[in-house]
Amino acid sequence: MPPRIAGRNFLFVPGPTNVPDRVQRAMMVAMEDHRSSRFPELSRSVLNDLKKVFKTNTGQVFIFPSSGTGGWEAAFTNTLSPGDKLLASRFGQFSHLWIDMAQRLGYDVEVVETEWGEGVPLERYEQILRADKGHRIKGVLACHNETATGVTSDIAGVRRALDAASHPALLYVDAVSSLGSIDFRMEEWGVDLAISGSQKGLMLPAGLGILGTSRKALEAIAGAKSRRCYFDLGDMIQANASGYFPYTPALPMLYGLRESLNIIFEEGLETIFFRHHYLAEGVRAAVHEGWKLKLCAREPKWYSDTVSAILVPEGINAAHVIDVAFRRYNLALGAGLSKVAGKLFRIGHLGDLNELMLMGALAGAEMAMLDVGVKVTPGSGVAAASDYWRSHDPVPRQKVSREEQFYASHSTGSIHG
Ligand code: PLP
Hints:
By secondary structure, the chain is α/β, with parallel strands linked by helices. It has helices spanning about 20-25, 40-55, 70-80, 95-105, 120-130, 155-165, 215-220, 235-240, 250-265, 270-290, 320-330, 355-370, 380-390, 400-410; strands at about 10, 60-65, 85-90, 110-115, 135-145, 145, 150, 170-175, 195, 210-215, 295, 305-310, 330-335, 345-350. The site of pyridoxal-5'-phosphate (PLP) has 13 residues, from α3.
């Protein structure tokens, strides 16, 4: 057995994220009957409140016991038929896996290969959509936050591209590592299917696939011939109508979700987005001004507020940095995946965290880099982050928005009380 390392493990992968103590406690419940007359109070409250996080009034949100990947599958199979054409861009491991799933499910994907470090190519999307006069493209895919490269794409821009081409395709958005951390506006941006999971901005363990659907997406179900069973939204819609699930729900996760939603509404969504940006800017200051390193994201417009993918200098294997950080300093950093394996390490900065927690990650990453021979100046990352955080407001200057006041006063609150 390796020697025990005292103290908490510093979990700085971009999901799963830290689960707040309140959420952990809320999940420690005795099992109960999910067909009881009381159960719908819980299910209805979380399903309704999730709509506020997705920012949809007219859409419907579904919860599957799965993960984000299950949400992808539910989105495709409920709205498409085999052979349907999709437009997608590949610029990281998650946009790649999503395309891979679409192909394995039998859809015909037009893939726009894009540099890893950039995001959805809006102009190219618009050209392709304009050229598709016969509207063969049934769905457009956009990965809002590519977790593998730390790149955020402009989803409102994808909607503009669709509208400019007067194209009726459904808009599918992977919001797995953006929902609840980076501004996401399902209804305003005309997103038809928004996929997320529990283990990122929602601050829960992995275990739930969460799917937001527009009216248009729900209407597409009737004509969708893809085979589906466990992920059939028809069954889910029927059961959810009375507050139940078509199978045994993951009860402790739902109690945890109730508490995480309470926490989100207490802080306020806009304040949460602001905090994520503020924390991310401190990390970026550490990378650029402190360590003099580069991010994988090529330009500021692509910078992600939930994860920074940091390129190590030539000749250094980023996997060694990650291994030393883990074994020696009890710090979990995210690995470089696939094409960028060994070239970068990632610091996840999403969920329930603050400056001092991130200082631990920056200090640990810096020590691990020094240990494996990266020539960074000791203390430089922490100093740059500290300079940034000390000179910027951690919360928005003006108080809570009207929207948040509305959500706070309409939050369904705790199921127990
Ligand atoms: N999409 C993105 C952007 C992700 O970051 C992840 C996981 O990290 C997934 C999809 C897959 O989600 P899951 O691992 O919850 O199935």
